[in-house]
């Protein structure tokens, strides 16, 4: 049997990078396309590190590899948009995850500008952000965005887990019981 201690540490923390990636692959994450624009036109990339941070003020986070060309453009622009994808947009997520320029990624993709940022026409949700802060985190930079505009459409979300796309589904409905019944069932005689 192989245990964590049997593997030679290859990072500062002593954790094997592959083992860590495999663990994090099991975490279900939303699939988004983060966008910005500059003199060269629209730019965007797929990101699954999107999360809410605060309601007051409304803040979100998204992380990018420090080598990301989009990251440099967002920091320079000081603003960005987040398109939340819906189930059925896997091809779009893959297109924006591939290498290429902004123009190549947007070619054939219906989009328009919203508050000066590229917004995908068919996205399930849209958030416009001012760059509020950045936080260094190893090989990534965490962007904190102050939400200036948010809207959504009721569609099943596109999520990513176990290195594949999917969507959320409800557990089978079970009859509800008062919490006291659960507590009583767990109390020893």
Automatic annotation (TrEMBL):
Gene3D superfamilies: Electron Transport, Fmn-binding Protein, Chain A. Residues 24-167 form the Flavin reductase like domain. SMART domains: Flavin_Reduct. Keywords: Oxidoreductase. One of its GO terms (molecular function) is riboflavin reductase (NADPH) activity. It comes from the Bacteria. One of its GO terms (biological process) is pyrimidine nucleobase catabolic process. Belongs to the non-flavoprotein flavin reductase family. PANTHER family: FLAVIN REDUCTASE, FMN REDUCTASE (NADH) RUTF. This is NADH-FMN oxidoreductase RutF, flavin reductase (DIM6/NTAB) family.
